[in-house]
Amino acid sequence: MAWHRHVALGLLVVRLAIVIALLPFAIDWRSPLLTGLRPAALSALIAVPLLLIAIDGWMLWRLKQSRMRQALSAAVILASTTTLLATLAQEARFQWLRARVFAADAAQLEKLGRHFIVGYRDATEIERLIERRAIGGVFVGARNVEGRSVAAIRAQVDAWQDTRRRQGLPPLWIATDQEGGAVSRLSPPLPRQPPIASVAAHHAGDDARNAAAHAYGVAQGRALAGAGINLNFAPVVDLNKNLINPNDRHTRIRERAISDDPAVVAEVARHYCRGLRESGVHCTLKHFPGLGEVFEDTHLESGHLNTPLAKLESWDWIPFRTLMSDGTFTMLSHAKLTALDAERPVSFSPAVVSNLLRRTWGYDGLLITDDFSMGAVYASKAGVAAASIAALDAGVDLILIAYDPAQYFPMMDAVLAADRNGSLQSAALAQSARRLGEQSAGHSP
Length: 445
Hints:
TIM Barrel; two-stranded antiparallel sheet
């Protein structure tokens, strides 16, 4: 019957549309965007093409069809096979890189691993990386502490640090994002504090405001130290430019910034950091060169800071320049500082890291990148592997891989290969190793 033929043709078109829609995911199914769905995504990207191959293969073999329907069935089989092979090729390559990293020379892995702080979704795998001396720190996020007590978190961290002591290595950096307010990765189980901006705003006088910021830092630092955390990715010292991007679901600097006044930001951040240090926790100034005027969300796409250098020097960079020499860490954002380098994000830009910060400013403290899982790096022309090499060559000390720990393996494999073939800048690595060694002596703030 005619309606039956139309329905069968419609279903054929639907099957073809489904497999064509799956193909881009198969080609890049290890994107950080799919991190939380990865096991299910792998199952779907294998099962669905196999099912479609079986259906349309059976139809071609057993049923008499028009030439158009035969062509469409053949197209479904071809597209399904391509999707399946792309998925398996991506997974095979990842597993090969992972095995190659774990099998790498232990001394080389230790030398380069010190430059990586890695998050985890699998506790067994992060323990294996620690055993192999393949990382310098662990990022602890909300998914790692959900439903757990502070004592349980501390016991796990202590076990990691015991491994480092047996190895004769400095303690791991145990890092988190605990700014207060909306960005409080460890609350619960740690107490949730209001945004530090609100604390500062409620105290008009300088002395009262600074005392409140110090007390805030002490309270937060004690809570973090109790869980074994020794490095906090706070405070935000980007200025509040009241910039609103309706599509910005992650950065939201206007909600996290301390103030629009650089002098207030510098003083509040200074006293907050002192409070953290008194509790045994290092602070991190973020996100250089400042995200207050960056419209795009660098978690998802490339971002641009188009502000003239003279304005940045005289205003936006006051908190950074005031505090960077005070024993703090500084986090490099993935925005492009277009006045110096319109092609590469700051986090792996030689023009910014090597020339501006290291040479012109003479900054010899620790530089850590923002999360390399973010779209501004992963989807950049360089990609995470080449970007990691460029970052270390430029003078970055620590590369953060928090949201999607799997990105560590292609990055480390690339860095290992660059070190073996001599293309990794040995002088930059040596200087970074010195800075890390000086700072990591017992992690004393």
